[in-house]
Amino acid sequence: MTARVWPRRLTTGLYWFWALQFALGAITKYWPGETFFGPPYSMQFIEWGYPSWMRFVIGGLEGFAAILLVIPSRRARFLGATTLAFVLTGAVTTHIINHDGLSESWAAPTHLLIAGALALANWPADWRDLLRVAAPPAVGAPRPTE
User: Fold this and answer.
1) CA 107/CA 10 separation, integer angstroms
2) Cα–Cα dist 38/71, whole Å
3) Residue 38: beta bridge partners?
4) Which of 30, 72, 113, 141 is the most exposed place for a label (fewest CB within 10 A)?
5) Which residues of 89-118 are buried (b: 16+ CB within 10 A; e: fewer)?
């Protein structure tokens, strides 16, 4: 096995681990009862000053971002990490406004820093790359290698 394959596998594994965390977070937002994180999110969102149904929006965004993170494309991973950065910015702001203690709110800023690093790592060379539709390779054309 070449030396170049291991870093790619490690990176892919880290993206999958990161996506699994947010997929689990998305599932718990839809869970009607208590979670292993504490009381039901329907109650937590109300305590934070949001309507109970907002947990479905946040859970949907987290699930969507988790899917984008496991797609082996810089564009998809950038959009997934950016989506998480926006969601986590709201989470950090919510914890600050509600004066939550560090024991309750350490995860959101930590995840925000990681999401920001992932977004920067997958930053497109040109912003228009986010809008371009990938053209299928021509028949008989050699496939590009990374």
Assistant:
1) 23
2) 31
3) 35
4) 141
5) ebbbebbeeeeeeeeebeebbebbebbbeb
Name the DSSP letter for residue 128: G
- In this prediction, residue 144 carries a pLDDT of 60
Residue given tokens 């030396």 in the structure block: 3
Cα–Cα nearest to 78, from 138, 126, 139: 126
Q: Is 44 exposed, middle or buried (0-12, 13-18, 19+ CB in 10 A)?
A: middle
Give mean pLDDT in consecutive 10-residue pieces for the chain, a chain of 146 residues.
68 91 91 80 91 95 96 92 96 90 83 92 76 65 60
Identify the residue whose tokens are 């291991």.
6
Rounded Cα–Cα distance for residues 69 and 24 (Å):
14
Residues 6 or more apart whose CB falls under 8 angstroms from that of 16 comprise: 69, 70
Q: What is the model's pTM?
A: 0.77
pLDDT for the residue 61: 97
